[in-house]
Amino acid sequence: MRSAAKSSAAKPRRRATAPKPYHHGDLRRVLIDAALQLVGEGGAEAVSVREAARRAGVSPGAPFRHFPSRDALMQAVAEEAQRRFRAEIEAALAAAPGDPLGRFRCLGLAYLRWAMRNPTHFEIISSRRFFDHDRADAISRDNAELIELTERTLAEAFAAGQLRPADLKQVQIAGRALVYGFARMNIDGHFPRWGVAGPEAERTAEAILDLFIEGIASRP
Amino acid sequence: MRSAAKSSAAKPRRRATAPKPYHHGDLRRVLIDAALQLVGEGGAEAVSVREAARRAGVSPGAPFRHFPSRDALMQAVAEEAQRRFRAEIEAALAAAPGDPLGRFRCLGLAYLRWAMRNPTHFEIISSRRFFDHDRADAISRDNAELIELTERTLAEAFAAGQLRPADLKQVQIAGRALVYGFARMNIDGHFPRWGVAGPEAERTAEAILDLFIEGIASRP
DNA sequence: TGTGAATGTAAGCACCGATTACACGGATTG
DNA sequence: CAATCCGTGTAATCGGTGCTTACATTCACA
Questions:
Q1: Both A184 and A90 in a single domain?
Q2: Radius of gyration of chain A (CA)
Q3: CA contacts within 13 A on the Cβ side of B42
Q4: Which of A155, B7, B25, B104 is deepest in the core (most CB within 10 A)?
Q5: Could you tell me if B99 and B197 lie in one domain?
Q6: Identity of the residue in A174, A180, A190 whose CB atom sits nearest the CB atom of B211
């Protein structure tokens, strides 16, 4: 089951002379990457500290020098995923100027697309189940900035007369629930007809986003 | 191959006393209830076969006479939860006649309320992660009937001229995504201001549902 | 250059899911 | 009534997991 593939030999190494440096170059980074890969392969449940250590070519106890617990590792993984998520959305939004409502649409589309193309990564940044509830952390911070971005865009759209009168806070929550729900349903297997990703899924995602936008837009 | 019945039997243990019945009355039922309780206490991850057996007052191996694996137990638990979910929604809908769009609103409200008041139960019926993907099972069947109910109600509303022209299939998916997303965000801790349940949460749920309905309703 | 701190190793604990061999006892049947 | 069979529970055990502790090695800085 476990294909050892003993001759990995592809490990990034700084030191050419030493065949096997006792100290790993950047074990923390490598562990996060291995865990990210595990998440991508089998979901969050598939991540085990031992397996991450195995892939990093290191003993089972080594990761605990960098992460006090499995949850801490998962949290670091989620922070990395959230960072990528936010970066991609902001990039999409920056590359798509235009009227505020159109920008809102781009925002939603980028959200949906990333979630559908990175389902397991979306899953771990979605659920707070994996983390200590005490720490709001970088995840909530990143998330808060995304929410703020959404609210700003909506406010601009309203100021431009593109929205019908409504409580913008509620519009923001409803929009968030819509895209979150669609992404999550997709991941959770509620649309058996298509896979988690694929043209039909993305077309439907676009359609329901447009339906929502038509619902909140001011009409002639 | 079965039973050598080798020696002269000679029962190693006499039946000195029978303080409690060897055979549990209905272990399967009791195990499902114990697991449901565990889900209610600490989420789906908190369910272990051993703990369920412990609470049923039975040895760690006993549950495997009724469920071939932990997943099978979880599936039975999810089926029970889904049964209750569907029953409550249908009851709420039956008790609330009126115009089709109003019935649609009742449907959504019952969905949201149940999800917010039984968050961990909603969680296990939401994610297909716990089950064999092969089996569509009673869960999908119940879910399909709920979807059908939604579609029927929407079609009635459209026939009554209460909806603006739109693809009803997309409206149904969007509506489902909205309530699913709100319920899931609530459970997943995206609304730190209020708890998973509570008056403010239910008020907000009602508000975004109304926002959505206004968006799809025909306007004068 | 020597030394302490950082980092990885090895061994082991408790818990878990799952399997297997066996013990019990109620229901069936002659 | 009595023998038996099989559904059901027990006990022991296996491999895997998170996590801790004691120890070994190497790096970085005085």
A1: yes
A2: 21
A3: 9
A4: B104
A5: yes
A6: A174
